[in-house]
Amino acid sequence: MGSADAVPGISGGTVALIGGIYGRLINAITAITPARSLDLLKAILPIGFGISRHRAKLILREFDVIFVATLLTGIATAVVIVGRVVEYAAARAPVLLFGLFFGLIAASAVILWRELTIDTIGQGLAAVTGFSLAFVLSGGVKLFEGGGLTVVFVAGAIAVSAMILPGISGSLLLIILGQYIPMYDSLNSFLDGLGGVATGGAIEAVITPGRDVFTFLVGGLLGLFTVARLIRRLLRRNREATLAFLVALVFGALRAPIAELSGNEEFNWTVATLGEFGVLALVGAVLVLILDWYAIDIDFGSL
């Protein structure tokens, strides 16, 4: 799930479905409510009726904490590893990196299109809105860079909430918002800074990137427990229109990898770079199609 969530075009939610843990994951997330969290605090702190280990164990079992902690550890490990690869590729082989991303996104868009039917004007408008929004934002991927912690917070809320929806890539939304590479830069700088502090380095190297990482995680937690619930509610109320918006969003985002390369002053489109871009796009598409083969029984109506 972590590897899937870390690259655009592949959904960690899809991997969870393939692995047979999606239902358990959703149950664990929905079990964590403000009321139950307050009950847990009352059970482990000397307030109210005092400490109750039995009640705390029951609530923690409802939250499925062992499962969630194990899953999050695996996801975090994969995200860190993929982050190093992305940082290296973005600096040394951007054509290959964004060619791969283009293929991942394109194949995902085609696969999602199979699940979509547009029968009404409302559904058509939702699709046009989704495509236009992603297309415009993807064309100016630098638009939100330097937008401060507010943009980082919003990006975290949107991306993490999307990561639990099968077929929808949280990393893709980060690319649309222009936060994909910057967030990985911050994460890697933060980890490097921690390593430096452990060996006697200056704490200042941790503070700035750590602030970005912390803000992103806080936004992600908020998104996980609010935006994700909102999206699921919209899917239940008007599934076709919501899916039309989300799928069109993926199509519109196809502009992002091309815009990212074209915006690089040191890059020029040539026959050679087009060939490299195309080959890696094909590789990315094949990877998604293989994943889709194993996820062929995904039912979007159950979301």
TrEMBL record:
Transmembrane segment boundaries: 63-83, 95-113, 125-144, 150-177, 189-207, 213-231, 243-259, 279-296
Organism in which the protein naturally occurs: Halococcus saccharolyticus DSM 5350
Name of the protein in its database record: DUF368 domain-containing protein
PANTHER family (UniProt xref): INTEGRAL MEMBRANE PROTEIN (PTHR37308), POLYPRENYL-PHOSPHATE TRANSPORTER (PTHR37308:SF1)
Domain of life: Archaea
Source lineage: Archaea, Methanobacteriati, Methanobacteriota, Stenosarchaea group, Halobacteria
Record flagged with keyword Phosphoprotein: no
Ligase as UniProt keyword: no
Keywords: Membrane, Transmembrane, Transmembrane helix
